[in-house]
Structure formats: structure tokens, C-alpha cells
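Practice problem 4.
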């Protein structure tokens, strides 16, 4: 027997004590959201959110200052066409603005420092944020993990430090975990497992994982939910909802994101993530979607030892997708794994309409035979056929550098505020093409891109629709993996042939349905065949077949 294994042989008295400890822990957690303790919790959460918001504002202060001065100039021009009193009023406004800017410059110097000390200050702030999120508990660890993938929002030291939340979440006591397993399964541990590890092999925001061996001989991973998680999540979301409602009083805080919608989607997703039976069903659905892909693997679920709060699955050994040196030592090319990962997500997003929403390196392993294994299906996203269709159209407008088409896609996908004229947005889209689409990942500087687009972002603000929250999270995480594993990788060039294939499948199905309805006298598809679109589809199909044949010939 290995050192980290133990034969289960606990006295009944200890098990009873463990169950009492679990019940006591669950009761105490609910009290933190009531009365005075609830008020302190609200203040603590508000303080962390406020400090992070202030820090991000100061980090990009030059953008904000430039915008304020631009607005002041516009006000002065308008005042000059009125009266001298209006001009005097604007001069006083300018003076107040100058004092305000000087105060913020001082605050920026205190919190961020100068260019020489900026990185160290950021590292210090990032550690502060990570520790605060851990202290706040599961809800905020989960939010921190999401923020750790947003290189477009946070400086690099924050990304690196928050990335540690994937692997460095403190575990909860074994006695509570083992009591949870026995309570959920209705059996003693020794009746289910031959042995179980003394300590968890991994701890995450919502639960922790033990290695074990079933009585039937299979090596398994057992995921156990944290005590009274539902109460914690419910209480924290209610506090976040109060903060979101408060922010609605300040429209400028809500221009670039639908905070209330995002919170609603977060709540729906995390409720599903807390249900391990739902996670097991998600894993089965994902496995079925990729049943014909021999290079994708999903661990087997052991349903006899799985409940809403305990999940038992096949134990898989492998290498993290970001462990470049180990992959190469095993004769596996990281670049091929990265391309395979991108292909799986194109299929998930554009074909299946069902995707793994949390593809961080801890949830992806490369097995010794080169297969890519997916884990942790608690957080998944679903895409309607209508949204899929719009996404495919948008992708091809991007590939074709069709600025007008992309501008319309942004309207259709609800990325712009209502009433924005697509003709006005076109220069914004063209500027985005100029700075982003033809760059390889190693050349993309997210902060520089943000600064370059700052003026147009203020004048014509984009907003992230709530139904894109987890799509963007997944894509940003994939981009982060791509930067590590394959710096030469160009997303659009790699994605183009696969997106074409999915588009051909979709358009082919729609065309077949239209023709069939026409022959049967049904009018479900407006009763018309778009011959121009059909001809373009045929040309694309022929070109794709020729390109594939050429690729096969080149390999030989």
C-alpha cells in the first residue's frame, strides 16, 4: 500500500462525531448573512469590489483623463456660443476638474507608483486581491478564477497571481468530507471503497477531490462538495445583487457590461455546477458529442457512487496542456494539442451548441497516448441554433474583413448599445482589424490595444451581453493556453477551415430542408430557394474539397 492510502476502518463513534461536526459547520455558515454579521459581510465584499474597481480605473487613468478633457473642450465650445456667464461656469468646472485630476494622480502614485515601481505594486495588489478572495470563500474564488483569464481587463501580474486560484485553494477538513460522502451515499466508506487517500489530491472553489479504489477494483477520483455551499452561494449572490442594483444608479458604470444579466447567468450556472448529478450528465453528453473523435477522452462516471454532492469518476493520469517540457519529453507536440483544443471548441460552439465553459489547464490533461482528456463539466454553456447561426456569420465576416458585416453582427448579437448607427461603428471595426486580426498571439498586447481603441470605446461603447459571458471566458482561457503552448498560433487561420466545414453542414441541412418543404408544399422556409446563396455554398464546398485533397497529397 502506498503512503497516501488508508484502509477504511473507522469506529462508528468517530463517524458519528464527524456527522455532528458537519451539521454544526453547516448551521454556523448560514448565520454570516444575518443581522450585524450580514452587514459586515456586505461591507467586506463591497470594500474588495470597490478597491479593485478603483485600482483598474487608476491603472488606465490616462484614458479617462483624456476623455474628461475632451468632454470639457466640447462643453466650452457650446458655452462660447451662449453667454459669458456660461463661459465662466465652464472655467470654474475646468478648475474643479484640474483639482480632481491632481487628487487622482496623487492616489495613483500612492497605489500604483511610477513606471519603475509599477510592476511590483501590481504584484502586491494582486496578492492582496487573491488573499481577500480566498477569505471571502467559494463564490469569490470562482469569480477570481474567471478574472484570472481576462488579460484584456487586468494587468499581467494579476493574471499570474489569480491563476494560482486554480490550484491553491485551501481544502476543508477530511472529517467533514468523509462525513459528507457517507451521508450522501448512505453507506460507510469501507462498504464502498477499498481505500481512499488520507488527504485531497486537489482542492477547488466548490469542492475537493480524493483518490480512491472502489470495492470492485477501479481506481477513481471522488469529488466532495464543500459544507453548506448552497447557503454560501445564495447569500453572496444576494449581496452582489444589492451591489449591482446600487451600481444602476450610475449609468456610466453599466455602459460596457450588463452586470445584472451577468450575475443572473452566473447564478444559473453555479446552481447547476453545485449539482454533481447534473455535472455527470453533462460529462455523458460531452462524451456522446465526441464519440467519433478518437483523440478526445472523458472519464467514466460511476453512478452507483454519485449523488448531488459526491461525484465518483474514473481516475486519469496525464500531463497538463501547459506543461511544455514534459509533453515534449513524452514525444507529444504542444502545438498539435493546442490545435486539437481549438478544433474541439469550434465543434462545441458552432455545431453542438453545448460547451465546456471552464477550460483552464487544471481541467485538461494529455494522456500518455496523446489523447486530450476533459474534466469538470460543472460549468457548461448552451447556445441556441439562432445564436449559433449569427456567430458563424460573424466569423466569416471577420475572415473576409467585411467591416460593414461585422458592424451589423455587433448590433445583431447585442454587443452595442441600442440605437448606435452601424455606419458610425464601421471605423471602430476597421481599427480593430488593423490592430488585432492579423497578429499572432505572441504579438498581441491587450493593454496597448485597449489604449488605442480608448477614444472610440468611450464614444461608441461596446457592452458584453450576458449570454456571451461564458463564451468569452472560454475563448480568453483558450487564448491564454495558446500563448503558452504555441506562440506562433493564429486563431483565425487555424479556425477558418473548421468553421467552413461547420458552416457547410449547417447550410446544407437548411438547404435540404428548404427543398424538401418545397417538394412537400410546406412553406416553413418562406417557400423560396436562394439560388445565389446556394451557388456560393457550392463554390465553397468545391474549394474546401480541393484544399483538403491538396493537403492530403502534400502529406504523402
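Answer key:
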Amino acid at each position: 500500500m502506498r503512503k497516501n492510502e488508508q484502509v477504511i476502518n473507522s469506529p462508528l463513534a468517530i463517524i458519528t462525531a464527524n456527522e455532528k461536526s458537519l451539521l454544526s459547520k453547516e448551521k454556523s455558515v448560514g448565520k454570516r448573512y444575518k443581522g450585524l454579521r450580514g452587514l459586515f459581510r456586505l461591507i467586506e465584499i463591497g470594500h474588495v469590489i470597490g478597491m479593485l474597481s478603483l485600482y483598474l480605473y487608476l491603472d488606465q487613468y490616462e484614458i479617462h483623463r483624456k476623455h474628461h478633457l475632451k468632454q470639457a473642450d466640447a462643453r466650452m465650445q457650446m458655452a462660447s456660443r451662449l453667454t459669458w456667464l456660461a463661459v465662466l461656469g465652464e472655467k470654474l468646472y475646468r478648475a474643479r476638474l484640474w483639482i480632481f485630476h491632481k487628487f487622482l494622480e496623487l492616489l495613483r502614485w500612492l497605489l500604483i507608483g511610477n513606471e519603475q515601481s509599477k510592476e511590483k505594486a501590481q504584484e502586491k495588489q494582486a496578492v492582496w486581491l487573491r488573499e481577500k478572495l480566498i477569505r471571502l470563500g467559494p463564490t469569490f474564488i470562482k469569480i477570481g478564477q474567471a478574472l484570472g483569464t481576462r488579460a484584456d481587463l487586468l494587468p499581467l501580474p494579476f493574471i499570474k497571481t489569480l491563476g494560482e486560484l486554480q490550484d491553491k485553494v485551501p481544502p476543508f477538513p477530511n472529517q467533514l468530507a468523509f462525513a459528507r460522502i457517507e451521508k450522501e451515499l448512505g453507506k460507510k466508506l469501507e462498504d464502498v471503497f477499498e481505500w481512499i487517500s488520507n488527504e485531497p489530491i486537489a482542492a477547488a472553489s466548490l469542492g475537493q477531490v480524493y483518490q480512491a479504489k472502489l470495492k470492485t477494483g477501479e481506481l477513481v477520483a471522488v469529488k466532495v462538495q464543500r459544507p453548506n455551499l448552497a447557503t454560501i452561494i445564495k447569500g453572496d449572490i444576494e449581496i452582489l445583487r444589492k451591489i449591482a442594483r446600487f451600481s444602476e444608479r450610475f449609468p456610466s458604470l453599466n455602459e460596457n457590461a450588463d452586470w445584472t444579466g451577468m450575475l443572473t447567468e452566473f447564478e444559473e450556472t453555479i446552481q447547476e455546477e453545485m449539482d454533481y448529478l447534473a455535472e455527470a450528465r453533462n460529462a455523458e453528453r460531452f462524451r456522446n458529442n465526441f464519440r467519433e473523435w478518437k483523440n478526445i477522452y472523458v472519464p467514466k462516471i460511476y453512478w452507483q457512487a454519485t449523488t448531488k454532492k459526491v461525484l465518483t469518476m474514473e481516475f486519469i493520469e496525464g500531463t497538463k496542456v501547459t506543461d511544455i517540457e514534459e509533453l515534449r519529453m513524452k514525444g507529444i507536440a504542444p502545438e498539435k494539442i493546442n490545435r486539437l483544443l481549438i478544433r474541439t471548441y469550434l465543434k462545441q460552439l458552432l455545431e453542438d451548441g453545448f460547451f465546456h465553459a471552464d477550460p483552464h489547464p487544471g481541467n485538461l490533461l494529455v494522456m500518455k497516448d496523446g489523447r486530450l482528456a476533459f474534466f469538470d463539466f460543472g460549468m457548461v454553456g448552451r447556445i441556441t441554433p439562432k445564436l449559433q447561426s449569427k456567430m458563424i456569420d460573424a466569423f466569416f465576416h471577420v475572415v473576409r474583413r467585411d467591416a460593414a458585416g461585422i458592424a451589423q453582427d455587433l448590433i445583431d448579437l447585442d454587443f452595442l448599445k441600442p440605437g448606435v448607427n452601424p455606419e458610425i461603428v464601421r471605423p471602430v471595426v476597421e481599427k480593430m482589424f488593423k490592430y488585432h486580426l492579423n497578429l499572432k498571439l505572441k504579438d498581441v498586447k491587450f493593454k496597448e490595444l485597449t489604449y488605442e481603441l480608448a477614444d472610440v470605446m468611450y464614444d461608441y461603447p461596446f457592452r458584453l451581453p450576458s449570454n456571451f459571458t461564458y463564451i468569452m471566458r472560454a475563448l480568453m482561457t483558450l487564448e491564454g493556453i495558446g500563448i503558452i503552448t504555441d506562440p506562433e498560433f493564429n486563431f483565425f487561420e487555424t479556425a477558418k477551415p473548421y468553421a467552413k466545414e461547420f458552416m457547410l453542414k449547417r447550410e446544407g441541412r437548411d438547404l435540404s430542408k428548404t427543398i424538401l418543404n418545397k417538394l412537400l408544399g410546406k412553406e416553413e422556409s418562406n417557400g423560396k430557394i436562394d439560388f445565389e446563396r446556394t451557388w456560393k455554398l457550392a463554390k465553397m464546398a468545391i474549394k474546401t474539397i480541393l484544399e483538403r485533397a491538396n493537403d492530403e497529397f502534400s502529406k504523402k
